[in-house]
User: Fold this.
Amino acid sequence: MEKEGLPEYSKSQLALRNGQDKPQIWVAYKGYIYDVSDSRLWKNGMHYEHWAGQDLTEELKDAPHSDSVFPRFQIIGILKT
Assistant:
């Protein structure tokens, strides 16, 4: 996926999109930010023991699924490093 043209967001901006502080529910993975707002599995900003508004790159290794779930969601930005 091409990174050009996508807005960049800081970790603090991502943290606000946790399903509590703002209506959007976003998660980051490998530098991309995904909008998971429409997923019933992320209702209220929580998916099992994972919270939205965070970079889930390191947490995915403990998940019962692979990163193949991410193409289901729209990439809406890049996580600033």
About this structure: The chain is about 5% helix and 25% strand.
